[in-house]
Amino acid sequence: MAVLRLAHLVDGWKDLYRYVGRLTEARAGVVSDGKFEGPFAPVLKSVLAGRFYLRNRIQKLDNIRKIVKARAASYPRTRNPEPLVSVVLPTHNRCGLLMERAIPSVLNQTYANIELIVVGDGCTDDTERMVRGLELDRVKFLRLPESAWRPHEGYDAWLVAGVDASNMGMRMSRGDWIVHLDDDDELMPEHVDVLLRFAIENDLEMAYGRVVAVMEDGERIELGSFPPELGKMTHSGVLLSSRLRFFSYDRNTWKYLEPGDWSLWRRMKEAGVRMGFLDRVLGVIYPAGPGAYHCEQSRMSRANRKDEAALSKKYLTRD
Prior knowledge:
Blueprint lengths: L1 H27 L12 H33 L11 E7 L3 H13 L6 E8 L5 H6 L6 E6 L9 H6 L3 H10 L4 E4 L5 E2 L3 H11 L4 E9 L5 E4 L14 E4 L18 H12 L3 E11 L16 H15 L3
Parallel strand pairs: 1-2, 1-4, 2-3, 6-9
Antiparallel strand pairs: 4-8, 5-9, 6-7, 6-8
Helix pairs in contact: 1-2, 2-8, 3-9
């Protein structure tokens, strides 16, 4: 028995080592500092995988206990035929895209019982005034001060962008179901209605569909697969049960080179969350990628930068 258990641990560590290899390769495609290259690269990867493994194992056991408790607490329960869905929308100084693209895609949903929670993540532009100016009861704005703990530029910043704002929005949400939307992306009009029905009919705790990624050169790429896979799913395609609210975005994933959103879904998967995939496009994303968090203008998405400048000018000059 001890031998089998040791073999299981070794296999788990090997899997994580390979996973860390994928993460370091992704980092190398953006950051050319050579940190994970050369003769000591295997050693650095081994240390990172070891830390990752211990942290991941502790989290997994804790999450399994919590999800069992959450399921017990929510059953039996009379189901509301039209449950409230909370859309959490963290944002940082993107007033134009927020008002032109993200918020309208939420307000134009075919499903009516929705609350929208916009969380300003250290915003210094006119975001708060514009959101409050909508004067809609189902739209709330929360202000989160600038956080000092996190990296503020580069690849590390991209990995954990908006995690504190997302956690705050999830804590303040009142819905039975939760959707997360990035401030430069949009939901298809039927997103909530279709995913909600799919989740309820199949007794799922997490449902997700395909999204279309519109690249800066105009190319459109469909993303989505089952089971969940790194790089093949995004926020704008996901619906979560509120019983999963105890899962929070990890502000330390940048230390392990792992994107914050993927870390959340990976931990859910490993804890046994009931997941289902709907083969239908339900969101549109406009990837800026890690380069958007670098100072060099050339690393940013030209299309996103141009759109944001035009839209911001349009909205910020209103009286």
